[in-house]
Specification:
- This protein is α/β, with parallel strands linked by helices.
- The chain has three domains: 1-81 and 277-304, Rossmann fold, CATH 3.40.50; 83-268, Rossmann fold; 311-386, Alpha-Beta Plaits (2-Layer Sandwich).
- The chain is 32% helix and 21% strand.
- The chain has a seven-stranded parallel β-sheet, sandwiched between helices.
- α2 links the parallel β4 (52-55) and β5 (74-76).
- α12 runs antiparallel to α13 (368-375).
- The model has no long low-confidence stretch (mean pLDDT 96).
């Protein structure tokens, strides 16, 4: 029976995908896998039994990726599972950034107690909350992944002109983007063209602070910026300076940090992007499916630390090897099986930066001596037989 530890509350619908051969609890000892949402794992002692971690969501900032890679622990996420939920909130933010709805609602509350005079007071004071329509305006979308594509396509449907930037756009994603979305080759083109800018990229050393004083200076006066990805993609101090100078008309973010709360022109939403029951269920189901397929079949889909490798079974035993991406590794592993008298009936191997993953199906059972020989190869990190 497989042991699964949960570090957060996980949707029951997702957990039901695992079946009777799984024991799932938050206090499981020696887990084979961990299901997590937002719980911080950087200071957590990772047990030797741990084979995989599945994050029910897209971001993996709460998981020690380098430590996991070194120990041969596969880390999964669930890209696209919460995309529609985030898209809907981004569209909400787009409209809120244009029309001063939030300020208007708060002002309207102050009119309570004025009886029949409220109607006249509303008509007299509403002009301070005027804002432009989004139809015919240009939206710049930075990052055309699962969420960025949905936002771009929805904005087209709302009558906006849309420009998109993504130097890593996959063929599959390119086919999903509306033909009306104009692709540009540089961020500067996004900055120059856009009345609204929404950012949908992961937080990495290269993207941290991508929206800063230098990039803001290249934008149109009065631009409206939306950040529903990660707080540190923007330099908040530079945003506040630009708001004060009216270079930026509004900043809408799903990340409420102390320095921006209550500041004029800022709409800070308390991280509600994926907070829908549908999104939580989708993420949990996808995470559970990833864990199950890996534990039972050795297949990897949607790993952030290892390449995607999956194939149908074709032999009596399956050997799964996580190894360093170095020369002669494939031939060395195959040689150990051959020396043990095993015939390889199917094989797949892919690399991702400095790590690789190999699946080998053999015609017969694999002897313990062969496994020990493979483990002893310099650069082999973890070996399993299924």
């Amino acid at each position: 029976m497989y042991q699964i530890q949960t570090l957060n509350k996980i949707s029951k619908l997702g957990l039901s995908r695992l079946g009777d051969n799984y024991q799932v609890a938050d206090d499981v000892q020696n887990p084979d896998a961990i299901l997590v949402r937002s719980a911080a794992m950087h200071d957590m002692e990772l047990p030797e039994s741990l084979l995989a971690i599945a994050r029910a969501g897209a971001g993996v900032n709460n998981i020690p990726l380098d430590k996991c890679s070194e120990k041969g622990i596969v880390v999964f996420n669930t890209p696209g599972a919460n995309a529609n939920a985030v898209k809907e909130l981004v569209l909400t933010g787009l409209l809120l950034s244009s029309r001063k709805v939030v300020d208007g609602i708060e002002w309207a509350k102050t009119l309570k107690g004025n009886g029949d005079a409220v109607g006249k007071m509303v008509e007299k004071g509403k002009s301070q909350f005027v804002g432009p329509e989004i139809m015919g305006k240009t939206l710049g979308v930075i990052g055309l992944g699962a969420i960025g594509i949905l936002v771009a396509n929805a904005a087209v449907a709302l009558g906006m002109d849309v420009v998109g930037y993504d130097p890593y756009l996959s063929v599959d994603n390119a086919l999903k983007v509306s033909r009306k979305v104009k692709h540009v080759n540089t961020l500067d083109e996004i900055y120059a063209a856009s009345d609204y800018i929404t950012i949908h990229v992961p937080l990495t050393p290269d993207t941290k602070g991508v929206i800063c004083a230098d990039s803001i200076a290249k934008m149109k006066d009065g631009v409206r910026i939306l950040n529903f990805s990660r707080a540190d993609l923007v330099v908040s101090g530079d945003i506040l300076t630009a708001l004060a100078a009216q270079k930026i008309s509004a900043y809408v973010t799903d990340f409420a940090t102390d320095d921006i709360l209550g500041e004029a022109g800022v709409i800070a939403i308390p991280h509600l992007g994926a907070s829908t029951p549908e999104s939580e269920e989708n993420c949990a189901m996808m995470a559970a499916d990833e864990i199950k397929d890996f534990l039972e079949n050795g297949n990897i889909r949607n790993s952030v630390t290892l390449p995607n490798v999956a194939m149908a079974r074709s032999g009596a035993a399956r050997v799964c090897v996580i190894h360093k991406n170095v020369p002669n590794m494939i031939s060395s592993i195959c040689a150990k099986l051959s020396e043990s008298g095993n015939n390889i009936e199917g094989m797949a191997n892919q690399s991702k930066k400095e790590y690789s993953y190999m699946i080998l199906d053999t015609a017969d059972a694999v002897a313990d001596s062969a496994l020990e020989a493979i483990k002893a190869i310099d650069g082999v990190i973890r070996v399993r037989v299924l």
